[in-house]
Design brief:
Mean pLDDT: 77
Order of helices and strands: EEHHHHEE
Helix content: 25-40%
Distance between the termini: 64 Å
Number of strands: 4
Low-confidence stretches: none
Radius of gyration: 28 Å
Structural class: alpha+beta
Shape: rod-shaped
């Protein structure tokens, strides 16, 4: 962690700033979840601006949502069946039903 101090003109107050890596921010955010501190107390203890904490947490949640959406498509290519075709299937009709969760069902039929 790189730190540097900025003094005001009188030299009385010193503010410390830290440049943290993405890994360090992930650790800080995970550790906050396990701490029993308020956000303000945690940020003060670790010399973090609450706005920076919120910004990094939002960034990680957004990235996680994007990562979760990348593997949502499933190949549903029909496989040939060894069983004899019924008369309903022999006329090139088909039906697909997907349960999407939360009570949503998608039904697709071919005439």
């Amino acid at each position: 962690m790189n730190t540097f101090a900025m003094n005001n003109d009188s030299g009385e107050n010193t503010r410390k700033y830290a440049r943290r890596s993405e890994t360090q921010w992930r650790e800080l955010i995970a550790n906050y979840g396990r701490s029993n501190l308020t956000l303000e107390a945690y940020c003060q203890q670790h010399h973090i601006a609450p706005s920076g904490f919120y910004s990094w947490r939002k960034r990680f949640k957004s990235k996680q949502a994007q990562d979760n959406n990348t593997d949502r498509f499933i190949d549903i290519t029909p496989q040939p069946s060894a069983s004899p075709m019924t008369s309903e299937l022999s006329n090139n009709s088909w039906q697909v039903e997907l349960e999407l969760g939360q009570g949503w069902i998608l039904r697709i039929k071919a005439p």
